[in-house]
Amino acid sequence: MHPAYSVILFTTASGAGYGLLFWIGLAEAFGAMPGGRWIGFAMLTVALALITVGLLASTLHLGHPERALGAFSQWRSSWLSREAVAAVVTYIPAGLLWLVWLAGVDSGATPALGVAAAAGAGVTVYCTGMIYAALRTIRQWHRPVVPVIYLALASGTGALLLGLMMALAGFAVVWTLFAALVSLTAAGLLKLSYWQQNDGDPGRYTAEMATGLGHLGTVRPLDPPHSMPNFVMREMGFSVARKHALTLRRTVLICLFGGPLGLIVLSMFTPYDAGFMAIAVLAAGIGVITERWLFFAEAEHVSMLYYGAARA
Amino acid sequence: MTSLPQPSDVKLGLVIDLDICVGCQACATSCKEWNTGGYSAPLSDHDPYGADPSGAWLNRIHAYEVTTDTASKTVHFPRSCLHCEKPDCVTVCPTGASYKRAEDGIVLVNPDTCIGCKLCSWACPYGAREYDHDDGVMKKCTLCVDRIYNETIPEEDRVPACVKACPTGARAFGDLGDPDSAVSRNVAARDGFNLLDEFGYEPVNKYLPPRFNSVTPDQVLPAPSEPVPASNGSAIENLFAWVDRALSAKG
Fold first, then answer.
1. Residue B142 falls within a domain, yes or no?
2. Which chain B positions have a beta carbon within 8 Å of A131's beta carbon?
3. How much of chain B exceeds pLDDT 90, in percent?
4. Distance between CA atoms of residues B95 and B81, nearest Å
């Protein structure tokens, strides 16, 4: 599948933003936010900015972004519509929390708003993952582990950001480091299992099934319908060389998982060094963008059976 | 509403006879001609006469080679939307622009509400939907919905443009929900089949299999063997002859 940069930016930026919102919301609910309201306000602003930038980026690949309101209507059947609804609903508690902290009103409602914002963040990221996992045409995506990886990566990158900002603000909040450690470890193990599942699955469908001619013999393409690649071939037929894919997988393992995990442990002993956390955030940023690019580039679409793929 | 309607009794669709299609592209060009001016017009092209032409087409004609134990055959293979009974291209649509008509089962895109997110094309295993980069919406076969019910054109023209254009009669249009319709009877008589039946979208369009001419294995001529030049008996010739035999045996 063609990796659209707007979708990569959307899912990684808003993923980290929702992860950050999730941990801020939980921290507020359990009274684990250090410092005054301005600390919470600043961090929530970063989370909402990441989410908003991501959501705006996601509209860049639309043919008619001005009609986007219509995307809230089909939540009964469409995961994309559910994601849109969840994203907007999540703005309500998150925005209220932001306003309460901005205005400085002494409200007993902030823990409840925190829980609601955290739940909304989780639901939105789950819907994002399900947009891909629900597509039966792409076997690499049509796996139960896909939305779980989206959740774990959002949680991990969000916790890393929270840890960095806490360190910059001068607070040693060890639970954020543990949150990042646990999320990223889980995401890394799930991603390894995801790659293993895909490498061992050549695909159920064949060119013979696609053409319905398998009962007659083997099928190979003779003439394409056109001289140059069409939309379907460019959109669904993107592929990455196996050699490059392995290099990029190693990049993901080092930048998104190994590197940040090591730096988190280091910063626990240093103690809580903002420099180590900054490098961890930078590395994880590169890693998660690479991971998302590969998620698309390694995905194979069944329609390519009509264009020469033997299996899909 | 992008939830699927109850299966309709009327299931309008195409039956494509792979035995007589000659791959002339008349159906594809007449489809393009009609639909660039009809429902959801235009069908944009980019660089149509240049080095890298591309554009939205609703009907694409492939050619495949089918090889059996004894023979090979070229099969011309038109491919367009199959107007499936249970397609995810409809249910994934966030706006309701992609829908299946309850009255006749035609799958359509509303060009006024489509936001161009392309998710429906990802959900189609047949590669039948093509995005129009100029129009910013998804395009697909409409079964010429603006011809088949069109009372302003002569009755004999109220069939999809591809069916009207086919010079060999390889394309037929009709109600596949009615077991007594001409298309349904032909499908039953000729063992018509679904494309990628294993996927479970339950296509309405059917394909009729190509017939192989009655060549039996003993009628197939053996492949001519390469002539072997006589050796002049020298050591080097004998060495080459031995290498040739050794390599041939491996193959």
1. yes
2. 92, 119
3. 76
4. 20
The helix or strand, by DSSP H or E, that contains position B187, with its residue range, turns out to be helix B182-189
pLDDT for the residue numbered A32: 85
| Helix A174-199 vs helix A145-169: crossing angle, to nearest 10 | 150
Structural domain that includes position B135: 12-208
Residue B37 domain-assigned? yes
From chain A, the residues in CB contact with B63 under 8 A are: 221-223
* B228/A95: higher pLDDT: A95
pLDDT at A275 over 70: yes
H-helix or E-strand spanning residue B17: strand B12-17
Residues of B in contact with A74 (CB under 8 A): 1-3, 93-96
CB-CB under 8 Å, B131 with A80: no
Given this structure, which CATH class describes domain A5-307?
mainly alpha
B140 pLDDT exceeds 80?
yes
Is residue B200 in a domain? Answer: yes
What is the least distance, in Å, from the CA of A311 to any CA of chain B? Answer: 12
DSSP bridge pairs for A37:
none
A71/B94 CB distance under 8 A: yes
Contact residues, B window 113-172, toward A, CB-based 8 Å cutoff? 113-119, 121-127, 129-133, 135-137
Residues A209-225: pLDDT tens digits? 999 999 999 999 999 99
Of A204, A222, A236, the CB nearest to B74: A222
Which residues 61-80 of A have a C-beta within 8 angstroms of B?
Answer: 61-65, 67-68, 70-74, 76-80
Least confident span in A11-15, A104-108, B63-67: A104-108
Give how many domains chain B has, as a whole number: 1
Domain ranges within chain A, ordered by starting residue: 5-307
Helices (H), chain A: 5-29, 37-59, 79-103, 110-133, 145-169, 174-199, 207-211, 231-236, 242-252, 259-269, 274-297
Tally of CB atoms within 10 A around A294: 20
Alpha-carbon gap: A102 to the closest alpha carbon of chain B (Å): 35
Query: Tens digit of pLDDT for each residue in A84-129?
Result: 999 999 999 999 999 999 998 877 889 999 999 999 999 999 999 9
Which of B2, B60, B209 lies closest to A78 in CB terms?
A: B2
Q: Is the pLDDT of residue B187 over 70?
A: yes
| CATH number, domain containing residue B151 | 3.30.70.20
Residues A132-144: pLDDT tens digits? 999 999 999 999 9
Query: CA of A301, closest CA in chain B: separation in Å?
Result: 7
- pLDDT tens digits along A156-184: 999 999 999 999 998 878 899 999 999 99
Sign of the Cα torsion B123, B129, B130, B135 reads negative
Give the C-alpha separation, B29 to B10, whole Å.
28
